[in-house]
Amino acid sequence: MDTEGKTLFALRGSAIQDKMKKVLIALLFMVATVAAAQTPYKRSGNGIEIDGEKLSEAQMQELLSDVNGTDIYGYWNKEASSRKLGTGLAIGGGVLTAAGLASALLGGVTSLLGAATGAVVGSVGGQEGASSGASQGAKAGKPFAVAGLVAAAAGLGTLTGGIVLISKSNKRLDGLVDLCNSASGGDIQVMVGPAPSGIGLCMNF
Length: 205
Description:
mainly alpha
C-alpha cells in the first residue's frame, strides 16, 4: 500500500472512531435523561413519596388502583393497617416492659429496706427476733417484684410481636412500591442502524 493509500485508510479509520465516539456520547446522554425522568416511587411510613413529596390519599388511590391492570390499593391499606397495629404493639410493649422492670426494682428495694428495718426492730427480742423481723420485712416488696417481672415478660413478648409485624408489613409495602416502579418504568429499547449521514441511534421507552 502506497503512502497516499495509507493516509486515506488512516483518515477513514479516524472518521469512524469519531462517529463511534459521538454515538457513545449520545447513548450515554439518552440513558441519563431517561433515568432522570423515571424518578422511582419510595415508601414513606404508611405512604408513598416521589421527589421527596408525599402523595395524598387520593393520589395514592389513583396510583395503586391500576398497577399493570391490577388494583392493589386494598392490599396496601391492609398492610398499612398491620404496620400501624405493629407500631402500637411495639410502643405499648415497650412501655409495659419498662414499667414492669421499674416495679420489680421497686419491689427489690422495698424488700431490702424491709429486711433491714425488720432486723433492727426485731433485734430488741434478740437474735431470733432480728432474724424473724428481717424475714417478715423482706416479704414486703415481694408482691411488687413478682408483679413487675410478670408485667415485664408480657411487655417484652408484646414488643417482640410488634417488631415482627412491622418488619413483615414493611417488606410487603416495599414490594408493592417496587411493583409501581416496574409498571411505570417500561422497557427501554435501543436500536442502531444506517442513516444518511452515517450511523443512527434510536431509543424507545
